[in-house]
Design a protein that fits this description.
Length: 382
């Protein structure tokens, strides 16, 4: 048995600092916690090398030609077998525990094997829900881990019922102080020289945002017939890359693609209203209702109106309802979107006042400082 030190070994598909929700969340959570990173998704290899992270690609290619590489310890996994020589060579330090931030069972099982191989306790943090986590094998794994964290209250309730655990914590991204320092938005009047910017910030995924983001584009197009200064700007990846290709070329709509993280606050400063969409498609909703938009705490802290458009029982809307935050539209309707957006633009100063939380507890609840205090407490209990 190795002598543990104060460092945490973070095992994850997506390493901290990548320009997506998982990377942003991990950067926030582990900012003040000593840790090393072992990540499993080779798509982030350039980012991982730049930051000194260890890549353990899991799952690796199943081809028989990789058998020798596995036998010699050059790769960590082959056909659900793991390599101890690879682990000894690539993860040499001692750690206090393993923290698995995962959204796939492949990464979860690898993290468990790493923890067992190094005789360490395992904390599992589910970053997204999947039916793959409900199989008997994975349920037993989740029952036995030393600590269990979910991304939303609704997800925690589901897993408490499924696993019979009463110690599940809820932990998500928090807003850095920089968000509170974003200058007060221009309150208008808006015109073609001073456009009103509606903004979507984050990854745009067909299975999460289909059957809702189209409505926003259509509403903007209708509004521009009488208010041509209203614009819709979207930032982030698209999955698949051609998702809504034609619709996103509508008049007044611009998709800017992936942006560096350091540009995020400049974009937020220029925006007047944020959109947080959730799919109305019943099949998509079954899964997405447990998820959490990474940017939500930052939008809350920005001092700008934000519109949540999606079914009432998503984790996002239940959270917003609990603290009476944001503007919420739970019925799928382009007409309702037009009405709400026109009212925000026409009476913008008043909307800005109404959406800004006055209770310091609200800011603490969604602040980066608050979530880092919480993860420090969770780690101290294991």
């Amino acid at each position: 048995m190795e002598t543990p030190n104060s460092k945490i070994l973070l095992v994850t598909e997506t390493p901290p600092g990548t320009p997506n929700g998982f990377g942003v969340t991990l950067k926030c959570l582990f900012k003040e916690t000593a840790h090393d990173v072992l990540y499993t998704d080779a798509a982030f290899n350039a980012h991982g090398k730049k930051n000194g992270y260890v890549l353990g690609q899991v799952p690796y290619h199943r081809s028989i030609r990789h058998l020798l590489k596995f036998a010699w310890g050059y790769i960590p996994e082959w056909r659900n077998w793991y390599s101890k020589p690879w682990l000894r060579h690539n993860v040499r330090k001692s750690y206090r525990l393993v923290y698995a931030f995962v959204y796939s069972t492949d990464c979860l099982k690898f993290a468990l094997w790493v923890a067992q191989s190094k005789d360490l306790k395992l904390i599992v943090h589910l970053a997204d829900h999947s039916e793959d986590f409900t199989t008997k094998e994975i349920r037993n794994l989740l029952k036995s881990c030393a600590g269990f964290v979910c991304i939303t209250n609704e997800m925690a309730k589901k897993y408490e019922h499924m696993l019979g655990r009463q110690d599940i914590e809820v932990l998500h991204n928090g807003a850095e102080n920089r968000c509170l320092d974003i200058p007060t938005p221009d309150i208008g009047p808006f015109n073609e020289k001073n456009p009103f910017i509606v903004c979507f910030l984050g990854g745009l995924f067909a299975h999460l945002h289909g059957d809702c983001i189209e409505d926003v584009v259509q509403a903007i197009s209708q509004i521009r017939k009488t208010r041509p200064w209203v614009e819709f700007h979207l930032y982030g990846q698209r999955q698949p890359s051609n998702f809504l290709e034609e619709i996103l070329q509508s008049d007044g709509c611009t998709h800017h693609g992936i942006i560096p993280l350091e540009k995020k606050f400049d974009i937020m400063e220029k925006a007047h209203c944020f959109i947080v969409p959730s799919s109305f498609n019943p099949e998509s909703h079954k899964h997405y209702r447990f998820s959490f938009p990474t940017k939500l705490p930052e939008l809350l802290a920005s001092g700008r109106p934000f519109l949540s458009y999606g079914p009432f029982d998503t984790s996002t809307n239940l959270l917003l309802n609990e603290d009476n935050l944001g503007i919420r539209v739970h019925k799928r309707s382009v007409k309702l979107l037009i009405d709400v957006l026109e009212r925000i633009e026409a009476d913008y100063e008043q909307f800005c006042k109404e959406v800004t939380p006055n209770d310091p507890k609200i800011f603490e609840k969604y602040s980066a400082t608050g979530v880092r205090k919480k993860i420090s407490r969770i780690l101290s209990l294991i």
